[in-house]
Amino acid sequence: MKGHAFEIEIKSLLGSQSAADALKAKLVALDPSCKLKNSYTQLNHYFEGGDPNKLADAFAPFVSKEVAEKMHTMAGGQKISVRTREMNGVAKIVLKASVGSDSSANGVARMELEEPVAGKTFAELDALVQSAGYTYQGKWWRTREEYEARGVSVCLDKRAGYGYLAEFEKVVDEFSIRYSGTLT
Q: In whole angstroms, what separates CA 168 from the centre of its chain?
């Protein structure tokens, strides 16, 4: 599957502020060059149902030809997660398609597209998604701090309802899943 970015991600519930602070200290001990890269608040809307091909068609006039083609390619997958996101005033469409038997929402390996849609508000993106037959599954917010340690993106999120969460992520251009289920 060349030409796609694959997200390899592991999440861990930390719960408390003290656990998040302890993780930050361990990251710096592991990699002294580790420091805060970015901090922001996100609004996220998750959708379910709908037709991913109609979704790709609905967004085609508002994204590059390359992004529209990627949306159509991802639409061919069995498990696809559809989201809209507003971050720092920028509205984005987010698609995540599972690779292998994992869930598209929280799998370890996924194809991912996160694309700003110029000239569209967050509400207008939601309307485009709904025009393809999708309905709201959930709406939530998070504050996020982004770090990088030894080439791995580490995000610390504070989310409503369950506190702090750590997300370890690496984006690669290609990988294979061996019969043992391990990524290479």
A: 12
Question: Tens digits of per-residue pLDDT, 135-169?
Answer: 999 998 889 999 999 989 999 999 888 799 999 99
Return the amino acid letter for 73.
Answer: T
- Encoding tokens for residue 119? 């000239």
The residue type found at 1 is M
Closest to 7 (Cα-Cα) out of 69, 71, 98: 98
Separation between Cα atoms, residue 134 and residue 50, nearest integer Å: 4
Asked whether the beta carbons of 142 and 159 are under 8 A apart, the reply is: yes
Q: Decide: helix, strand or coil at residue 80.
A: strand
Please give the structure tokens belonging to residue 22. Answer: 């302890």
The answer to whether the beta carbons of residues 85 and 123 sit under 8 Å apart is no
